[in-house]
Structures are given as structure tokens and as C-alpha cells.
Description:
Blueprint: E1 5-13, H1 17-29, E2 35-38, H2 69-87, E3 97-107, H3 109-122, E4 130-132, H4 134-140, H5 142-145, E5 154-165, H6 167-180, E6 185-188, E7 193-199, E8 202-207, E9 210-219, H7 223-231, E10 238-244, E11 246-250, E12 258-261, E13 273-277, E14 280-287, E15 291-292, H8 304-311, H9 315-325, H10 328-339, H11 345-354, E16 370-372, E17 376-381, E18 386-388, E19 392-396, E20 399-403, H12 412-425, H13 435-442
Amino acid sequence: MKNETKKIQVAILGGGITGSSIFHILSKYTNINSIALIEKAGKLGEINSKENNNSQTLHFGDIEANYSTEKASSSKEASQMVVRYLERLDKKDCDIYKKSHKMLLAVGEKEVATFEKRQNEFEQIFPNFKKITKEKIAKIEPEIVSGRKQSEKIMAGYSEDGWVVDFGALAKNLAQEATKNNPNAEIFTNTKVTSIAKKDGGFEIITNNGIFWADVVVVAMCSHSLMFAKELGYGEEYSILPVGGNFYTSSRKVLNGKVYTMQSGKLPFAGVHGDPNIHNENETRFGPTANVMPFLERNNIATFGDFLKSTLSDKQSAIALLKVLSEKTLLTFLLKNLIYEIPYFGPRAYAKMCQKIIPTLRYEDFKNGKTKAGIRPQLINNKTQKLQMGEIEIEGEKILFNITPSPGASACIKNAVKSVNKTITFFEGKYSFDETAFKKDFLS
């Protein structure tokens, strides 16, 4: 293909969970004639969606203490769409997910009081999310209570309806399912996009694997989406605070399910949590830590220049970044997390912090070391000079740019439907979305 231009109607750039979901919905529920999913890695779902790069949590909003009731209701609706898909998978694909109980743990008088107030507000949204006391906690997760001071008050919210998901594997499955009965849906891996330019009423996409021309483009490249948006004159009101981190793995099984801790609503990051590893239930992963990194992709120093293009491309963006970083609550949080990166002392300090969940946890339990989480593209609104929670979709002329920080994977289907409906409008009535078929598969 390198010597010719491949013409398609819709090009989706980025084969993570977001791009694969859009590809799936476009291919199965619209009558668009040609669709391409273009991914730079050798496989789909190998970057931020890869299982080691995230907490493998399908977020409903019940155990996420920094969610408002509105955010929790929206997250519940979105996650249930993913559940509907997972429940239809063949037995051979069951390694994509596991069912797990989940718990939101409150430790100490202050947190317990906050939890009880929150529980009263959230119980109508999550009727199966029950308040449990220390005695019940000990039966479900004995290591949470073992070794804890008798005087320390604890309480938890508990549900049996938790899901542990390998979102990288789910991305592959969604894309593969899209191509089964649609010969016009194609996947291109090992194909890195180097530029996007308007040409002949559409877009010319230059890659290392040849040139594509598309009527409509959807950029679902996580942190890089904003970089390409700005190169085309869109998204100037946003910047990215790239946040990476690490997970520490206990080779001693200390939890039977997911356990999250209370977290301030002022921060977009969840408190420390323990999660069973989807591919090894005898391991428990703790984290993630959170550190600002001047890269758009973890372990890829070449993306430093991309960070400059997306976040420090002008004076307004630079000022907004400095303003956000100087905010007391966030700055304190980030400085504390820097401690966990110090050799020798860092892992020991983090193990001590994790004792909030498992009092008997020691540094020696982390003998498997740490794994690096992916980059979370936390958005900054340059006008307000504040963090902007949640994902956004920047709309241009016949082009969309998706930027989806956590919990974007949990909302992958819901967000995909929005993108697909916008994509269809670019064709001015020529194509349609089969809402009846979609509702039957995902909402009934």
C-alpha cells in the first residue's frame, strides 16, 4: 500500500479501548461503506489499555469516593453497557474479565462520618451497595482487620457486582467482532500516523505504512489527540497534565476482591486501592502512584516533543499549567507521590501507606517490584486555569478528537455512540445509525 493512497470514508486513529469501541459501533450499527482502524503498535490495546497499565476496574461510581452523584449515575449507565457486551462473550473469551466483589473502605472517625453521609446520598443510585461494619469486613476480607488496632474505627460499602477487565484484550475483541461480518471494516496495525492534513474536502493521513485519504477522521489517540487537534487549529483552550504512576504487586495474596479507599472530591485521582490481578488471582496490585511526567506516552522519551506541542505551545497554556501545579491540594498530593519514587525509601514508604488497607503489609511483600502504569492525560482548561474532570471530544470540520483520561475505558461504549452519531452528521443524511439494534444489544 506504500505506493498508493488508500481511500476510505471514516478513519479511526488509535486502536486502544476508545478507538476500538468506535470502530465496533460504526461497523456494526451504521451503513457506512468503508471504515479503517489505524494503530501504531503491533497489536490493538497495547498502550494505556494494556492490563498492566491500569487498575483493570470497570468503574460504576459506587466505590469511587471522589465522584458526585451525577458522575456516579452517568458512570453506572456507561459501565452497564460494557457489562452487556461482556455477558455475551463466548467462553473462550472469558479471560477478558472476571467478576469480583468490591469495597469502599473508610478508616478513622472522620472518614467513617464522611462515608456514612455519602452512603445516604448514593444508596438510591446503588441499592445493592450495602454498608458493612468491621465484623462483616473481617469475614469478607480478613486481612483488612488482621493486625489493626482495636480502637481504629472502620466501615465499608460492599457490593458483589464488581468487574475486573483486561481492557486491552477487550479492545482486540471489539475490533475483531466488528470485522467478522463487515468486509468493509479493516484494521491496520504497525501503522504510525505522522501527520493529518486537510485535502480535497477530506483528510490526508501520512503514516509509516503509506498514505490514507478519508472523508471523516476520528482521532482516538489518548494524549496525542490534543496534539493533532492543535496542529489543525482546534482545542487551543485545552492543555494536558500528563500523569503517570506505578503499581506495586504483593506476591502474598492479601485481598479477595477490589478494595478502594476514601478520596477527596477535589482530586481527579482515586485514593490508594488494592486490586486482584485479572491474570493471576494470587497477586494483589496496589496503586497507582501519581507523578507528573513531561511525556505523552510512558517509556517513550520521544514523546517529550509531543508534550511541548500539546501543552506548552503558547503562553496561555504554560500559565494554565503552572497555575494548576501550584494549587495547594494538588501540589501537596503530587509532592507526596514523589517520595514513592525515591530508591529504597520510596517502596517502603508506599508499603506503609498501603497499611491503611492491609495493616500487616510490609515492603517485603512487594518483592515482585513495581509495574509502570500508562500516562493519564488529565485535561487543563486554559481559560479557567483549572483541571477539567472527565473526558472531552473536540469537534472540528469533519473531524473529531477524543481525549479520555480514566475512567474513559469504563465509558467506552457510551462515548463511542456519541462519536458515531456525530460522525454520521458529517455525511449530511447519507448514512444512519441503527438505534434499535444497538438498544437490543446494549440496553435491553
